[in-house]
Structure formats: C-alpha cells, structure tokens
UniProtKB/TrEMBL annotation:
Region (Disordered): 101-124
Domain RNA polymerase sigma factor 70 region 4 type span(s) in chain numbering: 132-181
Protein name stated in the entry: RNA polymerase subunit sigma-24
Alphabetized InterPro entries for the sequence: RNA_pol_sigma-70-like, RNA_pol_sigma-70_dom, RNA_pol_sigma70_r2, RNA_pol_sigma70_r4_t2, RNA_pol_sigma_r2, RNA_pol_sigma_r3/r4-like, WH-like_DNA-bd_sf
Classification via Pfam families: Sigma70_r2, Sigma70_r4_2
Classification of source organism: Bacteria, Bacillati, Actinomycetota, Actinomycetes, Kitasatosporales
Organism name: Streptomyces amritsarensis
The keyword Ligase belongs to this UniProt entry's keyword annotation: no
Amino acid sequence: MRSVRAAAPREVDEERLVRLVAKGDRAAFEELYRRTSPWLAVRLRRRCADEQIVAEVMQETYLAVWRAAGAFAGSAAGGTAVGWVWTIAARRLVDAFRRRAHHAQPPPAAAPQPAAPAAEEEALAATVGSDVGDALRRLAPELRQVLQSMVLDGLSVRETAVLLGLPEGTVKTRARRARIAMREALS
C-alpha cells in the first residue's frame, strides 16, 4: 500500500483518506484537512458570524475526525467523506450554540446574506453558459442553495438537509422546484 505522500494528490479520494486516517496515517489526515478545511470554514461562517465559535468548531470537528475515522461507513452507506465531515461539524456547531445558550448568551445570528452574489455563486454562473448562469441567478435564494449543495457540492438529500438545517422533505421539494424553474427558464 502506497502512502498518501507517494500517491499523486488527486489519486487518493477523500473516502480513502478517511480510511487511512482510521489506521493512524497522519499524512492522510493532513491531506484530508488541506482539502476540506477551506470548504468547511466557509460553510460554518455562513451559519455563524462569531469567528471564535467557528474556530472552536473547526478544531473539535477535526479532532472528532481523527478519533472517529474508523466509524466512517463510507460509500456503502450512501454517504461521502466530505458529507460525513460536514455532519460532524454541523453537530459541533449546534453543540456550541447550546453551550452558549446555557451560559445565557444568545448565539450570534448567522452572517447576513450579502446583496452582491457570493463568490461561489459567481463561480458557478461563470462555469456554465450564459443562459444557464442567468437562470441560476434568477432562482430564489433558497432554491439556488439546494441546487448548489446537491449539484455543485455533490451532496445527498440527507447531507444537504444537514448543511442547510432543513428537513429532508423540504430539500426534496426545493430541489424539484429548482429543476422545474431551471427547465422553464431554459426552454
């Protein structure tokens, strides 16, 4: 078995990295962190404006990943490693909010959605044709979020529900509405 350092960076997928982490492979853990931490930090900041909480949740998440990598069920259970990491982070964020509430301090509100499109939205629109990009920009924000999570991020319905803090049925409904709206806009 080749180590992560010996393999080409994209040759080892995140699921394999988690399995190597479960065996105590520190290089695999470092590579998993390098690949997932920027993405994770952005998503946490969208749900919490307090940088201290985001930093704590990041630390707790990767500590949990190191300790619990052996519990990752992987693709056989229908989940991805990235979705698994997000699920851990989302639970840690909820725990952080509960701790703060317990200490009689309300959690800071989620960062307000900027009037200008987010960089992720601009990148998505720029990578697709102008008609598709225009249709994406015209989608209601809640529909665009679901579409981006499921299509751009490749998350399952369950993972998207966790990411957005919505029931799975709502995610399915919004995904269907987004597809219909996109089909109508492009026809």
